[in-house]
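Morning - S-adenosyl-L-homocysteine inputs below, output right after.
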Amino acid sequence: MSGRLAVVGLGPGDARWLTPEAQAALAAADALFGYAPYLARAPLRDGQRRHPSDNREEGSRAREALETAAAGASVALVSGGDPGVFAMAAAVCEQIEQGPPAWRALDMGIVPGITAMLAVAARVGAPLGHDFCALSLSDNLKPWPVIERRLDAAAQAGFVIALYNPISQGRPWQLAAAFERLRRYLPATTPVVFGRAVGRPDETISVTTLATADPADADMATLLIVGSAETRLVPRLHHAPLVYTPRAAGSATT
Ligand code: SAH
């Protein structure tokens, strides 16, 4: 028996953002693994087994999915958004690197998805229209001083910054500290986008400035986009302002 593992991105939530390739990978699987709320979003067909797990158990979830595939099953391991962005694809690679040689012979593929920052950006305009970077604010897997250094460097280098994992019950102060850090380098008027649960029924999008950004407005389901000094707002009639970063920076012209 030859098993297979597909690491599948479900997109941020809206079913229309699930790619046809992801749908096919889910339909083809005998066994589905993933964080319980994400797994609940995958349509289930007869004969499929679901193996929901807790948020924190990424390593053991990846191992179980690999073991099940190595035993001959067709397995889908699901991630919200894109599996390669702060998610399961890297956890699977870690396990393959550390695991038995047989796992390196497995048929394993990554199915990309729309990552949260792209969905949030699309809601407000084009804040990622020029150079940007993405940072996870979680200090579960890296020390806080590393995060501070990266925030400083990104702001000083003029990148727009997408912030994943801005806050959680176990990490209540980090976002306020990040804003403090960024205020050292960026104008008070720098646009900040809060995109919460984008693509889900409880979606909220708000645009504020770095001076007034309130960490209390973010939760675990929020993605933030902090503009660069070039990012601007275009007021519109009857519509929310556009937030965008022009394609040209410095002295370059279009
Ligand atoms: N692989 C995911 C990211 C996982 S990290 C992706 O590519 O989107 C989890 C973080 O992603 C959350 O804390 C939040 O910052 C962001 N996120 C995931 N889904 C989101 C959504 N629907 N709306 C806004 N942010 C989201």
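Note: The chain has two domains: 4-114, 117-244.

O.
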